[in-house]
């Protein structure tokens, strides 16, 4: 998402990658088939942002209760946490390929449950199922790609998984926009998510297990057969020997520190170098989440509406810029991270994030301070000079929501010439949201 990351590679490695996959298309078939897991991750992140607009229209409880909206959005993340933990166990016990297949099944049924949901609570159940699938696939896909790729182009192929995530987000916004006028709107948006899962399931049925996992389970002949499809004939034995050394070293470490997740973590923390690297990595991942990029991606159309664009379709169209810049940022990082270094790129990125978060905070505070109050007390007190004359004549004013206020044509939340056009300050808000997504 927004959540997760990818191994990076320089331009030389990408050139070598292109040459290798051109000679051996089977390698790209492995990488792209597994990379659909990243696409599922990205699609689930982005699709709910647009679907939520129409879910609110269909269910009054969702429109009025922000905690219900938050539950619908966040349950996928909760499911992903469980899915990632269980996926680790599945990877070790039954293999990477089985874990991806299982994730596809869970994700597909989750998408169907959401598409046919008769009430918000069934949507939440579907979101949990989708989250389980996303959690399993998001940690298994890069693992499978790395273990089924030649070492010299491994970084380049794993990098494509990160691009698939941001590409999936962009695709979800496109599909959301395509279904804005279709009967069922949000049901189609959420249901279409099952298609990539079916495609990946079919493709993975014809692909092999990870050679490293097979060797780890003493299925050496099967591992050799797969390596023969990936490497030139004269490199197979060398790769098999390297695999043997790696697995033997892993088993030796397990004999010392013990098997199981807890034992491995304790062993890693005892190593000073590993411990410092682990702390740095965790800090970066936590900071990445706390900058608020997930909020931007999950609620981009809603934020755009709060910025004054009251139309659902206009908000979705403008949100394409957010997801598009996010995808472009992934490509930029892949191209320049080895030229300028991880640290420099991260410092530049964090500086941009801080700058635009400050702008967002200031303009939202200004909008809140200067916006005319809309409420029973204020309107009754001012009478004909009410800050919102439309509120006085509305038969159902106590039931107004934020979107109703935006459409009230009070000359601040919306432009006097058009109820779905923003005022100047809201253009600044929208610009800041877009730039935040780019700097992330």
Automatic annotation (TrEMBL):
<dbReference type="GO" id="GO:0016020">
    <property type="term" value="C:membrane"/>
</dbReference>
<feature type="transmembrane region" description="Helical">
    <location>
        <begin position="345"/>
        <end position="365"/>
    </location>
</feature>
<dbReference type="Pfam" id="PF00083">
    <property type="entry name" value="Sugar_tr"/>
</dbReference>
<dbReference type="InterPro" id="IPR005828">
    <property type="entry name" value="MFS_sugar_transport-like"/>
</dbReference>
<comment type="similarity">
    <text>Belongs to the major facilitator superfamily. Sugar transporter (TC 2.A.1.1) family.</text>
</comment>
<feature type="transmembrane region" description="Helical">
    <location>
        <begin position="123"/>
        <end position="145"/>
    </location>
</feature>
<dbReference type="InterPro" id="IPR005829">
    <property type="entry name" value="Sugar_transporter_CS"/>
</dbReference>
<keyword id="KW-0813">Transport</keyword>
<keyword id="KW-0812">Transmembrane</keyword>
<dbReference type="GO" id="GO:0005366">
    <property type="term" value="F:myo-inositol:proton symporter activity"/>
</dbReference>
<feature type="transmembrane region" description="Helical">
    <location>
        <begin position="98"/>
        <end position="117"/>
    </location>
</feature>
<feature type="domain" description="Major facilitator superfamily (MFS) profile">
    <location>
        <begin position="30"/>
        <end position="440"/>
    </location>
</feature>
<protein>
    <submittedName>
        <fullName>PROTON MYO-INOSITOL COTRANSPORTER</fullName>
    </submittedName>
</protein>
<feature type="transmembrane region" description="Helical">
    <location>
        <begin position="185"/>
        <end position="207"/>
    </location>
</feature>
<feature type="transmembrane region" description="Helical">
    <location>
        <begin position="67"/>
        <end position="86"/>
    </location>
</feature>
<keyword id="KW-0472">Membrane</keyword>
<dbReference type="InterPro" id="IPR050814">
    <property type="entry name" value="Myo-inositol_Transporter"/>
</dbReference>
<feature type="transmembrane region" description="Helical">
    <location>
        <begin position="30"/>
        <end position="55"/>
    </location>
</feature>
<feature type="transmembrane region" description="Helical">
    <location>
        <begin position="278"/>
        <end position="300"/>
    </location>
</feature>
<keyword id="KW-1133">Transmembrane helix</keyword>
<feature type="transmembrane region" description="Helical">
    <location>
        <begin position="306"/>
        <end position="333"/>
    </location>
</feature>
<dbReference type="InterPro" id="IPR003663">
    <property type="entry name" value="Sugar/inositol_transpt"/>
</dbReference>
<dbReference type="InterPro" id="IPR036259">
    <property type="entry name" value="MFS_trans_sf"/>
</dbReference>
<feature type="transmembrane region" description="Helical">
    <location>
        <begin position="157"/>
        <end position="179"/>
    </location>
</feature>
<dbReference type="InterPro" id="IPR020846">
    <property type="entry name" value="MFS_dom"/>
</dbReference>
């Amino acid at each position: 998402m927004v959540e997760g990351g990818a191994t990076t590679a320089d331009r030389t490695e990408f050139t070598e990658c292109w040459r290798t996959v051109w000679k051996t298309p089977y390698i790209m078939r492995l990488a792209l088939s597994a990379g659909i897991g990243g696409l599922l991750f990205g699609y689930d992140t982005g699709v709910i942002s647009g679907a939520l607009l129409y879910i609110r229209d269909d269910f009054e409880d969702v429109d009025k209760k922000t905690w219900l909206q938050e539950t619908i959005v966040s349950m996928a993340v909760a499911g992903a946490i469980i899915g990632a933990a269980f996926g680790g166990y599945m990877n070790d016990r039954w293999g990477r390929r089985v874990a991806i297949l299982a994730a596809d099944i869970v994700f597909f049924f989750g998408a169907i449950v959401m598409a046919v949901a008769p009430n918000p609570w069934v949507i939440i159940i579907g979101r949990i199922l989708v989250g389980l699938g996303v959690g399993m696939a998001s940690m298994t896909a890069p693992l499978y790609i790395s273990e089924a790729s030649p070492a010299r182009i491994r970084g380049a192929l794993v990098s494509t998984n990160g691009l698939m995530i941001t590409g999936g987000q962009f695709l979800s916004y496109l599909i959301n926009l395509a279904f804005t006028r279709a009967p069922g709107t949000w049901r189609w948006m959420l249901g279409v998510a099952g298609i990539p899962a079916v495609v990946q399931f079919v493709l993975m049925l014809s692909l092999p297990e990870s050679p490293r996992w097979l060797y780890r389970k003493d299925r050496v002949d099967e591992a050799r057969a797969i390596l023969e499809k990936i490497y030139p004939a004269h490199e197979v034995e060398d790769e098999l020997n390297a695999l043997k050394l790696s697995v033997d070293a892993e088993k030796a470490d397990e004999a010392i520190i013990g098997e199981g997740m807890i034992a491995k973590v304790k062993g890693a923390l005892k190593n000073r170098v590993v411990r410092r690297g682990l702390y740095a990595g965790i800090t970066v991942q936590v900071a990445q989440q706390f900058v608020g990029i997930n909020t931007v991606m999950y609620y981009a159309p809603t934020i755009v509406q709060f910025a004054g664009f009251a139309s659902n379709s206009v908000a979705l169209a403008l949100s394409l810029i957010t997801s598009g810049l996010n995808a472009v940022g992934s490509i930029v990082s892949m191209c320049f991270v080895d030229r300028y270094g991880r640290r420099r790129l991260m410092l530049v990125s964090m500086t941009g994030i801080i700058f635009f978060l400050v702008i967002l905070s200031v303009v939202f505070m200004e909008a809140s301070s200067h916006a005319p109050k809309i409420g029973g007390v204020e309107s009754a007190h001012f009478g004909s000079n009410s800050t919102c004359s439309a509120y006085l004549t509305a038969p159902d004013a106590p039931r107004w929501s934020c979107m109703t206020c935006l459409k009230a044509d009070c000359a601040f939340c919306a432009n006097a010439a058009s109820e779905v056009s923003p005022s100047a300050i809201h253009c600044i808000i929208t610009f800041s949201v877009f730039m935040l997504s780019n700097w992330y």
